[in-house]
């Protein structure tokens, strides 16, 4: 059976089941998330991670948030409070607040239409919207794959960073969906997975899922990318994104910006693959995107073992911004935006989908 990073089990009294990504690649362990606190812990510790996946999980989180309430009056207030908590569990990926506000709007609309709405109807509306977000994510991933596979040529050497695959979404991923689609169409290529320090999403997660999919995969340390490009082993770079500003500047896992600079220097195309839920058109450019700063120990230790002297200063920004001018194209489910800029992005969002 196909691996699913997250799934809702049952009806409005159900729970969220997710792969604990902190345990991979050693063990494939599922966690059952039955309340908002466990969900927030899972998101903060990166047991559930990747922008689209945390968006979908957050939507289901609102079902958990009101499961125990029997009073329709208090439900919206409770929902608002828990929504705020869930949305602020990680600051960079916009999918989180996007999903949470979508679900809240549905609940609000029901109550505005029918102030006497029963709690059970409210719960049903919320679960229904969460399922819809889930299904849409699956569909968006599939379409991103179809829209992007043409950029993979036979014999390509593809470099990817972090994990933008099925573990990071409810579907087949964004950057990796493009790769899966190219394989489905019989193309031959090799993928280089950056290990992605500090938390090793590339070597632990991307390598795990690509190996399961029988895709020719080679793990490299982050600092090897330039040398490999110089040797002609890399013909394209493709990554996901956590938030894309109105002008195309894109936040993604720390290290993505350096790759974009290297790609430009070596005249290698650099692609971002992301669904519409990752665009934040309210934000003018990348400098306005909040970058999550994570605990110092993630840098100071590897697999629990200290690798720095105690007390040394450490920085640990989890994301960086790749300026639009370093991006050859952004691949979305709505189409491909070549040499992205504010005008082209506005255009692609003009048509309602
Ligand atoms: O800190 P993480 O592991 O959640 O960071 C994830 C990334 O940076 C991904 O590239 C991004 O969310 C896109 S996933 C389709």
Task: Walk me through the structure.
The protein is α/β, with parallel strands linked by helices. The chain folds into two domains: 6-143, translation initiation factor eif-2b, domain 1 (Four Helix Bundle (Hemerythrin (Met), subunit A), Up-down Bundle), CATH 1.20.120; 151-350, 3-Layer(aba) Sandwich (Rossmann fold), CATH 3.40.50. The protein has helices spanning 36-44, 51-65, 72-87, 94-113, 119-148, 175-184, 201-212, 225-230, 256-265, 297-300, 342-350, and strands spanning 6-9, 15-19, 30-33, 156-160, 189-194, 217-220, 236-239, 243-245, 250-253, 270-273, 279-280, 301-302, 305-306, 319-322, 329-332, 335-338. Strands 6-5-4-7-10-15-16 form a seven-stranded mixed sheet, with helices on both faces. A four-stranded mixed sheet has the order 11-8-9-14, with helices on one face. It has a three-stranded antiparallel sheet with strand order 1-2-3, covered by helices on one side. Strand 12 and strand 13 form a beta hairpin. Helix 3 (72-87) runs antiparallel to helix 4 and helix 4 runs antiparallel to helix 5 (119-148). The model has no long low-confidence stretch (mean pLDDT 96). It binds 5-S-methyl-1-O-phosphono-5-thio-D-ribulose (MRU). The site of 5-S-methyl-1-O-phosphono-5-thio-D-ribulose has 20 residues, from helix 2 and strand 9.
